[in-house]
């Protein structure tokens, strides 16, 4: 399978998501041990062994090498999991016998996945480096099980400074009591969770308490949904993350103009026109690390949302939602516009109180009185375009203005 065929397979699995290449670029830029740690328990292996094997092989072909962690009682399923062409079975005793030291030779049952096996290595980073030399995925078999597994995973994430832990479960996420899958959960969230998933959610919070890295995330998903969780903004399971810090600034001139320009222009994939920053902005809601922003202007009818820009990768972290919620708390009356072909317009339609479609634009508003709507639409109709023209990129921007 050549490189182009591998990329096409990735797009097929992620349903042709445009986000995939951005995530792939990000993951390749990370040090390998920081990419991801994937934990699969015995139940997951029994239910979804083939899907997990397929996805891991595709990751390896994409030159990504996540660390896979298996519990010791899961080794008995390795014969199913790795489906070697030979009848050789992998046993826990064999793992022990072949791992008197940290490093093992490839297990007899592992020919179908380019993997290198290790039994609870005392120097995990060295084990990862050894695997990478052979272009193989490191598989760690831990001696602990039950609740102790989560402590082991937390310490491993801390040691390797891994940015994401992926927990594979049969349910494929955390659900509400009404069995609706929750897309994003803050580690500090008090949202009600189904009884079946409550212990898992508590375990995720305990892991974070040990890791204590504000950029650390835990994804709970299924083996078949692994690539979609990693390579799409929407994901496939539940993402646990530290709530984004959203700040309000009433003086934009004190902020880093270079970072703001980069954020906006990358999000819109178009350049700002000269003179944009000469406008009289009343304030900005800004994610503390410049992952997203919403810029506002005062008008006679309420607040005009001039720009709403979120970094592509950060959209999958809920940055846009956090900024939007902060905006609704601060501004009871707000309006904005977006181009009709812009895919984000579907989301705006759900969020707004009202809208009007007119030629290339759709005008949206929240909290306006009926008498104010004609004047607001006139204002939006005549408001100058402040981004350079780029027809090929307009449909990809987060908000056209």
Which CATH-level-2 architecture of the largest domain? 3-Layer(aba) Sandwich
Query: Briefly, what CATH class of the largest domain?
Result: Alpha Beta
Count of all domains: 2
Give the fraction of residues assigned to helices. 25-40%
Helical/strand content category: alpha/beta
Shape: elongated
The strand count comes to 15
Radius of gyration (Å): 24 Å
The end-to-end distance, rounded to whole angstroms, is 43 Å
Strand order of the largest sheet: 3-4-2-1-5-7-8-6
Mean pLDDT: 86
GO molecular function, one term: L-amino-acid N-acetyltransferase activity
Keywords: Kinase, Transferase
Pathway: Amino-acid biosynthesis; L-arginine biosynthesis; N(2)-acetyl-L-ornithine from L-glutamate: step 2/4
Protein name: Acetylglutamate kinase
